């Protein structure tokens, strides 16, 4: 009797509601798995309709089309003689569930509903689905007639059960269930289930990959067994990038690792593993065996099929590997770049337009497009025909084959330096040199005539003689409504011109189509509201909107070495400035940190405490008393916290208009779904600030001597 099993898992770049494309990618993954000898294939969560359908799950069309795709899968000869595990929404007794549908040779073996739904951060599964709460219980599900006609089954088992093949036992858990305190794999493993599968829809967050890997390896380390994890990859139409990392593990070791970032729409992992290794591993863990002897049994669905072959003694088995992680800088280089590629090809636009200021943020955005071009060229060289076809469609040249990233960048990226009277020669030079090094199509425009005509119109039509007494754009430090309006007009004109050039840039060169406008506001500026509403932060998409200033600086430094972009050296060493105030003797008179009243490093701390640690003003003050006790007095800490919350609440309304941005940080203030808060606050925070003030006074009275050494 055979004991070696070959199993397959995959990462698929599915797209919400793209039923045709999703079907083809599923079939391709099954075909690859079969060609590699696999007898079981696991796919990502909700792969038939795409994970990010959101409120489309309410529509009966989504359920109907999902079953139509399932029928096509059942009917396809590709799915014969392999157990296929696919994900789709299913309605049972008028309740909608997030399900796995497992089938073999035109027979549905089990419909397994998700038992723990993800409902935090970016996830809202409880809005659309109901968790299955009846552990170790199944019911009969009445199959739609289109499925009955194919399977010759009236019903199929629906609920919490496992599959018993001739040679092993297979159990399912779905995404979030791995992250719960008492995951299903624990009880399933104790009940003799040897292969655990997990279909995920897990998105990228910086520095998160190790958590996922640790959960899988720990699951199999404590309880033994084989663990397969599948995941979606790519942008399926939203702010999230699903980062693959499919894997196969056994007994605490990883045997197959999928890529975290790639342009391949279909990636299949297979491993051949010996079931006896599971059994011998478990046999010597006495504590596990004692718990197993008391375990409650799962309903077993008998399957007349084996994952192993009779004659497999000479079949080679897979060897354990060491998981390779990307550095945070590499993650930034690859993740947002892949997201940009998916957005570009699926939006059917002709490229990107980026206002390039000569600062770190816009430079980092330009580097991400260049990194995308590098990945496209690499993928084409490796023979990816889908990527080649997409490139030719984007540049509108059927014979074009990208080889040089600079050449490709020149075809799909237009950068535009928008100067004003307040722009320094240094930023102009930095922007020009970077554009030359990455090969972008570079434009230069001066805002003076647009800004001047705007104020002339205002003075004439609104009879405002005060403007005539203050020369526009002259003198450093113009304050109040006039100074603010001068800065805002510059910023908003840039947005208007960016969209004008995006629509007409290709047309002016005799090329069809338009360009997607890229924004470049980082997560820290958004958190504080340090941006002008409807300025260049308003764009079609923003690849750096979920990345901190600190990480962006590290990323730009990384690009200097990785891509030999020496122009970035002067950019990363220059002080951050919006250049909205007039120059002083030809030099920049305005810096971001002076404007904000805090450093970017402090802002990241505030952001993490506010969102990740879930702290209001008083709790944050108490926390920072300890964190900053060697550098700040309680009074200074109080002033900093009050200033942050005043500015944050005052500008919270700006979050309602933020450009859709790549999600990379868990302290993002994105108002659409991740950070749900009011946008009209009492910005004086009277009760909260009074609590802080009372605590400061108490500390100052109690121990004045302990504060003598703190500046």
From TrEMBL:
Coiled coil: none annotated. This is Glutamine-dependent NAD(+) synthetase. It catalyses: deamido-NAD(+) + L-glutamine + ATP + H2O = L-glutamate + AMP + diphosphate + NAD(+) + H(+). Pathway: Cofactor biosynthesis; NAD(+) biosynthesis; NAD(+) from deamido-NAD(+) (L-Gln route): step 1/1. Catalyzes the final step of the nicotinamide adenine dinucleotide (NAD) de novo synthesis pathway, the ATP-dependent amidation of deamido-NAD using L-glutamine as a nitrogen source. SUPFAM superfamilies: Adenine nucleotide alpha hydrolases-like, Carbon-nitrogen hydrolase. Its EC number is 6.3.5.1. The lineage of its organism: Eukaryota, Metazoa, Chordata, Craniata, Vertebrata. One of its GO terms (biological process) is 'de novo' NAD+ biosynthetic process from L-tryptophan. The keyword Ligase applies. Residues 5-275 form the CN hydrolase domain. It comes from Macaca mulatta (Rhesus macaque). In the C-terminal section; belongs to the NAD synthetase family.
């Amino acid at each position: 009797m055979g004991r070696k099993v070959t199993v397959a898992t995959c990462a698929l770049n599915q797209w919400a509601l793209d039923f045709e494309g999703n079907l083809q990618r599923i079939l391709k993954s099954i075909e690859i798995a079969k060609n590699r000898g696999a007898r079981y294939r696991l796919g990502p969560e909700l792969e038939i309709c795409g994970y990010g359908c959101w409120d489309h799950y309410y529509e009966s069309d989504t359920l109907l089309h999902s079953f139509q795709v399932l029928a096509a899968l059942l009917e396809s000869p590709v799915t014969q003689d392999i157990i296929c595990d696919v994900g789709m929404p299913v309605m049972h007794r008028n309740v909608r569930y997030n399900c796995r549908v497992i089938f073999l040779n035109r027979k549905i073996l089990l419909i397994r509903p998700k038992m723990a739904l993800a409902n935090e951060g970016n996830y809202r599964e409880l809005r659309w689905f109901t968790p299955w709460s009846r552990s170790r219980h199944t019911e009969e599900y009445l199959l739609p007639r289109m499925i009955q006609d194919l399977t010759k089954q009236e019903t199929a088992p629906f609920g919490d059960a496992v599959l018993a093949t001739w040679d092993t036992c297979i159990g399912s858990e779905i995404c979030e269930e791995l992250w719960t305190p008492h995951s299903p794999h624990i009880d399933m493993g104790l009940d003799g289930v040897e292969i655990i599968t997990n279909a995920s829809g897990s998105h990228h967050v910086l520095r998160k990959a190790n958590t996922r890997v640790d959960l899988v390896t720990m699951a199999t380390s404590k309880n033994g067994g084989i663990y397969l994890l599948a995941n979606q990859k790519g942008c399926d139409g939203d702010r999230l990038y699903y980062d693959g990392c499919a894997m196969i593990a056994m007994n605490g070791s990883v045997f197959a690792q999928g890529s975290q970032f790639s342009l391949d729409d279909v990636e299949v992992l297979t491993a051949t593993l010996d079931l006896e290794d599971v059994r011998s591993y478990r046999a010597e863990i006495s504590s596990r065996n004692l718990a197993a002897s008391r375990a409650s049994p799962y309903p077993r669905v008998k399957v007349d099929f084996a994952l192993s072959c009779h004659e497999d003694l000479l079949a080679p088995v897979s060897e354990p590997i060491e998981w390779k992680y990307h550095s945070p800088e590499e993650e930034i280089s690859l993740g947002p770049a892949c997201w940009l590629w998916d957005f570009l090809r699926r939006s059917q636009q002709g490229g990107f337009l980026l206002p390039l200021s000569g600062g770190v943020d816009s430079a980092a955005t330009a580097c991400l497009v260049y990194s995308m071009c590098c990945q496209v060229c690499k993928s084409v060289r490796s023979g990816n025909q889908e990527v080649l076809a997409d490139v030719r469609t984007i540049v509108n040249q059927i014979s074009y084959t990208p080889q040089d990233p600079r050449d490709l960048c020149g075809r799909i990226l237009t950068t535009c330096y928008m100067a004003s009277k307040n722009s320094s020669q240094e930023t102009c030079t930095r922007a020009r040199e970077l554009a030359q090094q990455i090969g972008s199509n570079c434009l230069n425009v001066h805002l003076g005539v647009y800004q001047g005509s705007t104020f002339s119109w205002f003075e004439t039509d609104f009879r405002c003689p005060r403007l005539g007494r203050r020369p526009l754009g002259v003198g450093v430090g113009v304050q109040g409504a006039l100074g603010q309006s001068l800065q805002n007009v510059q910023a908003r004109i840039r947005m208007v011109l960016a969209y004008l050039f995006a629509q007409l840039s290709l047309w002016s060169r005799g090329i069809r189509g338009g360009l997607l406008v890229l924004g470049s506001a980082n997560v820290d500026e958004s958190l504080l509201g340090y941006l002008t509403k409807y300025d260049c932060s308003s764009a079609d998409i923003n690849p750096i909107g979920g990345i901190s200033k600190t990480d962006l600086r590290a990323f730009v430094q990384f690009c200097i070495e990785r891509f030999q972009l020496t122009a970035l050296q002067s950019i990363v060493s220059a002080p951050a400035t919006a250049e909205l105030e007039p120059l002083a003797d030809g030099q920049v008179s305005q810096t971001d940190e002076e404007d904000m009243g805090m450093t970017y490093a402090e802002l990241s701390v505030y952001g993490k405490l506010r969102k990740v640690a879930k702290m209001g003003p008083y709790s944050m003050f108490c926390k920072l008393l300890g964190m900053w006790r060697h550098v700040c007095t309680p009074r200074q800490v109080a002033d900093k916290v009050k200033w942050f919350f005043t500015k944050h609440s005052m500008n919270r309304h700006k979050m309602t208009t933020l450009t859709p941005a790549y999600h990379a940080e868990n302290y993002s203030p994105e108002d659409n779904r991740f950070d749900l808060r009011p946008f009209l606050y009492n910005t004086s925070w009277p009760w909260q600030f009074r609590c802080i003030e009372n605590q400061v006074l108490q500390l100052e009275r109690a121990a004045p001597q302990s504060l003598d050494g703190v500046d």
